[in-house]
Amino acid sequence: MQDNNGTNNQFSLEMVEFNPEWQFENHKTGEFYKNGVIPQKLFITYLGGNIQPASTDKVFASLENMFKSGALTNSNYIRIADYNKVISASFHTRVLYANTLNRLNEKYHCRPIVTYICGASLLTKTMLRLFASYVKQEFIFVATAQEAFDLINANNDDPWEEQDNQITISQKGLDQLAALCGNLLFNETFTFDENKDGVSPADPLYDLYSIIALLNHDLKELQKNEKEQKEEIEQALEHSRVLNTKLSEEKKIVEEKEQIQQILIKKLNQAKIEAEIANRAKSEFLANISHEIITPLHAVIGMTELLCYTPLNSEQTNYTDTIQTSTQQLYQLLNNILDFSKNESGQIDNNTIRFDIKTLFHDISSRLNDSALKKNLRLTLTIPPAIPQYLFGYPDYLTQALVNLVQNAIKFSNKGEIIVSIEPVSETPENISLRFLISDTGIGIPEEKKELVFQKFTQVDSSATRKEGGTGLGLAITKQLVELMGGTLELSSRENEGSIFSFVLLFIKPNENNKKNDASSILPYTGSLYQNRLHTPMKSRENTLPSNTRILLVEDNAINQRVASAMLNKLGFTIDIADNGIEAIDALKQIAYSLVIMDLQMPLMGGLEATKKIRKIETGTRDPDIPIIAMTANATQQDKQNCLNAGMNDFISKPVTIPTFQALLNKWVPQKK
Ligand code: ADP
Q1: Which residues of 523-547 are buried (b: 16+ CB within 10 A; e: fewer)?
Q2: What's the gap in Å between 475 CA and the centre of ligand 1?
Q3: CA–CA separation, 308 vs 534, rounded Å?
Q4: According to the model, what pLDDT value does residue 447 have?
Q5: Ligand 1 pocket member 460 (CB < 6 A)
Q6: Contact criterion met (CB below 8 Å) for 80 and 118
Q7: Which of 328, 371, 456, 475 gets mutated to test ligand 1 (max ligand atoms within 8 A of its CB)?
Q8: Atom number in ligand 1 closest to CA 438
Q9: pLDDT of 461 over the 80 cut
Q10: Of 50, 51, 48, nearest to 35 (Cα)?
Q11: What mean pLDDT is predicted for residues 651-655?
Q12: So what's the pLDDT on residue 159?
């Protein structure tokens, strides 16, 4: 390459001088203009960042400094502009920059003869190409500044050689250009072909044709891209429309399902409520019907017993024995059904009360010892000394659960012993958890039947129970009772070796500040089950019968009146009957009775209210302190407590028997013997 003076020259970046006064950089925006020169030969600029209009003054000042230095004055120089790092630049800024450069070139008598552009856009390239010949410049597009240097050094042409820029255009050339433009307008697919269209590189309009061809080509490409993108967008839109439709359909299905689910839930709730109502109705019906049957059954039991006290031959005794056994079984069944339906219908006492665990065990033992002894079985109930005597819990339920389990143990054992024991499980200052175990040495329960026996009316072997009697309700009731108390009834058993039923219950320990019921109000268990005392021999009349003793029986049921008065007559008492509390008070005002036997539920005035009245002096009965004995069936511990609170002295359970009456009268009318 030759310079202005015709000398060969090689250029490199190292030769470029970057005077600090010629530079501009804004670190905040990232824009920069780096200007450098090889004096009189080459002017290089690196531009970059977001070119801001606000920076132009400083940029132009640095440019001016460079031109002012004289490094380019009076020269035709090579220009390199590197736009690679430009992110954005407004049109206005670009025009201002170009104008300033032109002004400075004119002012300092210099001009670029060839310009290497690095990183120019397609449009910039085209624009520059189009106007290159008119501004007497040559534009060469390269990727990097280094490529520009390489080209400069490799080029043997002399860039400083003055070119003849005069352009002559013929009429034919202009016609051709017009035809081409027409084609471009009307023929979308038109392409410029220099051979076919007969335009040679020597043609003055050759560059123009080339650029139009290039623009045309770019435009087509843009149009093609646009069309493809449009199609893609259309496809995506169509796809999303399909998806949207599917989504709405699925949403509809989900909504429908939710609706169905809601309806089902509603129906289910309704069905549950109906089932609960039906179940309650069933239980109430069972309770009512059982109650209706029990009352005449009391009469059958009572009258049979009275019959037993009359002279009977052996055949007749055989008949009465059978009647007694059958009524006993029927009575137990009815009681079981009553208990079960009472629990199921929710008629339960759910207040814990203070009770004496030792007394409770003692009562169970005295109730069931006889039946164990009859089968040569030993019945042992033990309480470890560490266990508190008084606890808060549900003594009625606990007693009934234990009685049921011990009765079963006796029923299904032919040898050995039955042990009822308690093990402490855990204890805190406030409460204690106890495990109750009822073990026997009986026939046991096969593994596959263990679950079944807890179901209603289920028996392992009905022939075994036929002998002993049984309804298949006992364990179901016991399980229910244990669960009501917060425990779980468990069973471990080996066939022919024995069974252990167990459950764990949590009790609150009474403390000094927690005396809801004091020990004196603890009641002995009198039991609601028919006790097997029908054959207890009666004491001789002469020894015990009172003379001239009159008892008032307050009872509304005619059958019960007949049974009780027949028994009391048999025991030598004179009986007066009152149908309700009001009649009782009237009678007590007139006659001095030794004792009152009082039913609880009666029309007009019940037993509790009548008792309270009798105890009041102002009522005017002859003896306000007269012993009053409640006669009840299926009384709960709470009922009994209510009787005591009302002023009654004792209880007698239905069905009444001659021995129980006798014991009661011995206790309450001894002085009149
Ligand atoms: P049941 O009135 O027949 O005794 P339960 O519900 O009390 O009814 O008992 C159901 C069945 O479980 C009994 O018939 C018997 O087969 C079995 N079973 C209950 N307790 C025992 C036991 N301690 N030993 C052996 N089998 C028992």
Answers
A1: bebbbbbbbeebeeebeeeeebbbe
A2: 7
A3: 9
A4: 87
A5: yes
A6: yes
A7: 475
A8: 23
A9: no
A10: 48
A11: 84
A12: 63
Please confirm whether the linkage preceding 655 is cis (ω < 30° from 0): yes
Ligand 1 centre to CA of 656 (Å) is: 28
Sheet holding 111-118, edge to edge: 24-26, 31-38, 42-51, 76-89, 111-118, 138-142
- The DSSP secondary-structure symbol of 414 reads S
**Cα 460 vs. chain centroid, distance in angstroms?**
40
What pLDDT score does 469 carry? 56
Q: Are 670 and 578 in contact (CB under 8 A)?
A: no
- What are the tens digits of pLDDT across the range 373-415? 999 999 999 999 889 999 998 888 898 899 999 999 999 999 9
Alpha-helical (H) ranges within 144-205 are 145-154, 171-186
Beta-carbon contacts of residue 5 (< 8 Å; ≥ 6 apart): none
Q: At what angle do helices 658-668 and 558-570 cross, to 10 degrees?
A: 70
Query: 93 and 57 in contact (C-beta within 8 Å)?
Result: no
For 477-481, the CB contacts below 8 A with 24+ separation are 477/336, 477/339, 477/340, 477/343, 477/400, 477/404, 478/400, 478/401, 478/404, 478/405, 479/454, 480/340, 480/343, 480/344, 481/343, 481/397, 481/398, 481/400, 481/401
Q: What is d(CA 673, CA 657) in angstroms, rounded to the nearest whole number?
A: 20
> How far apart are the CA of 285 and the centre of ligand 1, in A?
26
Nearest CA to ligand 1 atom 11: 459
- Cα 634 from Cα 625, distance rounded (Å): 27
Residue 468's pLDDT is what?
A: 58
Name beta bridge partners: 43. 37, 79
pLDDT in tens, 104-141: 999 999 999 888 999 876 666 766 766 665 666 778 88
Q: Which atom of ligand 1 is the closest one to the Cα of 460?
A: 16
Question: How does DSSP assign 583-634, residue by residue?
Answer: HHHHHHHHS--SEEEEES--SSS-HHHHHHHHHSGGG--S-TT--EEEEESS
Structural contact between residues 167 and 204, judged by C-beta atoms closer than 8 angstroms: yes
Distance of CA 60 to CAs 52, 57, 662, Å? 13, 5, 133
Give me 396's structure tokens: 């009625």
Does residue 544 register a pLDDT over 80?
no
Nearest CA to ligand 1 atom 20: 408
Q: How far is the CA of 187 from the centre of ligand 1 (A)?
A: 106
pLDDT for the residue numbered 123 = 63
Ligand 1: residue whose CA is nearest its atom 16: 460
Is the per-residue pLDDT at 671 higher than 60?
no
Q: Which amino acid is at 238?
A: E
Measured from the CB, is residue 498 less than 6 Å from ligand 1? no
Please report the pLDDT score of residue 198 as a whole number. 67
* Lookup: tokens for 669: 């009318």
CA of 409 to the centre of ligand 1 (A): 8
Strands 550-554 and 498-508: what pairing? unpaired
Share of the chain above pLDDT 70, in %: 81
* Main-chain phi, psi angles of 532, to 5 degrees: -80, 70
Both tokens of 352, joined, read: 């814990």
pLDDT at 546 over 80: no
Cα separation of 216 and 187, whole Å? 11
Task: Yes or no: say if 381 and 507 are a contact pair by the CB < 8 Å rule.
Answer: no
pLDDT band per the 50, 70, 90 thresholds, residue 634: low
Q: Please count the other Cβ atoms lying within 10 Å of the Cβ belonging to residue 183.
A: 16
What pLDDT, on the 0 to 100 scale, is given for residue 288?
75
Question: Residues for the chain: how many in total?
Answer: 673
Structure tokens of 59?
Answer: 């940029």
Residue 194 has pLDDT above 90, yes or no: no
